[in-house]
Amino acid sequence: MGEFSRGGPSRRSILASGAAAAGLGLIGSRPAFAAVDWKRHAGTTLEVNLIKGPRGDLLHRSAAEFTALTGIKVSSEVIPEQQQRQKIVIELTSGRPSFDVVHLSYHVQKRQFDKAGWLADLSGFMKDPNLTEPSLKEADFSSAGLQYAKTPNGEMRSLPLSVDYFILYWNKELFQKKNVALPTTFDEMMRAAETLTDAKAGTYGFVGRGLRNANMALWGAFFLAYGGRFLDDKGNLLIDGPEAVEATKLYQRLLTKTAPPGVVGFNWMESMAAFTQGRAAMWLDGVGWAPPLEDPNASRVVGKVGYAVVPKGPKDHAAATYGDGIGVAAASTKKEAGYLYCQWAVSKLMGARLLQAGGGVPFRDSILSDAEVQQGVKMPREWLDSAIGSAKISKLGLPVVVPVAEFRDIVGSAVTATLSGADPAAELKKAAEQYRPILERSEKA
Amino acid sequence: MARAGLAPTVTTTDDLSPADEAALSPRWRPPGYWPFVVPALVVVVGVIVFPWAFTLWMSLHEWKVGAAPAFVGLSNYSRLPVDPRFLDAVWQTLVYTALSVVLPLILGTLAACVFHARFPLRGFLRGVFILPMMATPVAIALVWTMMFHPQLGVLNYLLSLVGIPPQLWVFHPATVIPSLVLVETWQWTPLVMLIVLGGLAALPTEPYESAQIDGASLWQVFRHITLPLVAPFLFVAAMIRMIDAVKSFDIIFAITQGGPGTASETINIYLYSVAFAYYDVGYGSAIAVVFFLLIIALAAALLAVRKRTQGAAG
């Protein structure tokens, strides 16, 4: 039983938590982890399954600090994204996962996890003052984060960890050379890309993902700009309507007229290579790529990169949003301890570290808008502004359905086919016909 | 044939009491070697028989990970002939396999002939030649991915030096399979070379001496003496290459993930997507079963060709 439930904190507990917070490095003068009885599960060992990447690596690296704060030992496993997704699904299906806490990709797994009930409901823990610091409130998470974390019944099944907005990276030097202004609309972006393309010189106006499946993240940004919705209120598929066709036509035009040859096979890695080598003037992709672009050992465009919110579309101004969260397995016997870990993972301290290194953007508004946190950001100010601006126009970039992988493959193939000259309307119609029964089967299951 | 201590005991009944007779004669006794067989049997059943039986069982069910399996009979199999992605994958697998067998076979045989001759630094160069075979496929794939890059890759730079325009390599549906075969050929030609080289080393010298006396040309020697004599080794190499190429996954997945679109999606890549990205275990199992049958059919076809050529030679 925690000290708070006995009527108030003891002098020892206040000193202990204060010392722990001071030792962890405070942000500002306020203790980062006040009010919570962090030690109530001291001695427990938690198994944590994380995705390899800046977020997972940060949590893995900082686990000793969590142990110092709580007395809970952490054994974390960090696995590359694709393999981690498969592993956790298989383990959760077995009913006896090897982990207590799990890192999940919302844009791929949200609906699957909700339907299967694999994660514990954290709503009660969030209301418990002995378990939850006062600043951790639902309202502090951006609306996209809450859309991802909450079930249709309003249960909080995970805590939103890091959000990935699609932003526009642009090469200021190439823009200056051709005297082109930063586009604010998709039409302007198309025109700018055409002006900036000089195939003989090997420079192109635009680069982005053309590879099947991966291209859906980019296509989603176009689709949203044309006012597209993936599903109607009854859950029917809407990917062959006029919004989708127009979005695909623009995608097709940009990638066939103004992008480097071979873009049909580009994922983020090839796109980034073209941009960092100064071969592409604009690149639309996730917000987390600033560190390699600003790394003199990996990039030829250091100091020349501009960062901007995605341009406004004909119907909407929306930043395609993807993200990941962290939750406690429903099958875990250490749910409270797991919740403490999740809370620590989304804390101001950890969120600030993530943001300041440019490795990701926290879902929590209080971290993103904190002046002291902002001051510590190592990336250019424009990058931070693009993240803050994107938060205001954030919309989910993929449908919240179980068969997301099939969606990305089937519609992604159709969109890729348009880069070889296929008709967008016909391809999307075919893809919708192919995907609709898969979606229906999955919803009925 | 019975061997003492290893076979069921055979006993004459003349000196036994009726009770002993009843106890011994009609009863079957397990052979004495059985305890030694059991561990191997357990392993074979555990890692081969059971997974196969389970795969067959799963292929008869609609089973999405996270949901309960439901028996659907052969309906997973009936989906296959009308699944355009599967049909494309079968065709792409066959093309990829054929090219990945034939090219290393030709180049490996030529390389073996070269390395069979004596010349300075032969051992060192042979060592260098087999290096690609020792490298990790995924690491190779990542390096080749950047080499194939249309703007930044070294391959287009090399082509530009001889006046050939840049190619799109794995970044175009029409050239993706030949480009992947290029990687496969680069990596596995040394294996064929080693097998054929072993064969060449074992050849008798007399036919060559006779041919030399008869004034045969180099080509005639190769066509009428070397090739027939190393044919058994070539079949071994072809079989190994065929099985390897048909199930190739790592290089294709790491370089193209089956793209652009589905232009380089082989059965293996499609099977992986169905089972581990779509979690459609039932349909994935049906694909696995058909894939297995295809490998057996290809191996059988190769053996049939081998038998026929042996017959013709005999």
From TrEMBL, chain A:
Lineage: superkingdom: Bacteria
Cell location: Periplasm
Entry annotated with the keyword Signal: yes
Keyword Zinc-finger: no
Principal location class: periplasm
Matches recorded under PROSITE patterns: TAT (PS51318)
Sorted UniProt keywords: Periplasm, Signal, Transport
GO cellular component, one term: periplasmic space
Homology family: Belongs to the bacterial solute-binding protein 1 family.
Name listed for the protein in its UniProt record: Sugar ABC transporter substrate-binding protein
Species this protein is from: Methylobacterium terricola
Automatic annotation (TrEMBL), chain B:
Membrane topology according to the record: Multi-pass membrane protein
Transmembrane stretches, start-end: 33-54, 94-115, 127-147, 186-204, 225-243, 281-305
Main location (coarse class): membrane
ABC transmembrane type-1 domain sequence ranges: 90-304
InterPro entries on file: MetI-like (IPR000515), MetI-like_sf (IPR035906), Sugar_ABC_transporter (IPR052730)
Family annotation (Pfam families): BPD_transp_1
Protein's cellular compartments: Cell membrane
One GO CC annotation: plasma membrane
GO BP: transmembrane transport
Alphabetically ordered keywords of this record: Membrane, Transmembrane, Transmembrane helix, Transport
KW Transport (keyword) present: yes
PANTHER family linked to this entry: GLUCOSE IMPORT SYSTEM PERMEASE PROTEIN GLCT, TREHALOSE TRANSPORT SYSTEM PERMEASE PROTEIN SUGA
The family this protein is said to belong to: Belongs to the binding-protein-dependent transport system permease family.
Protein name from the UniProt record: Sugar ABC transporter permease
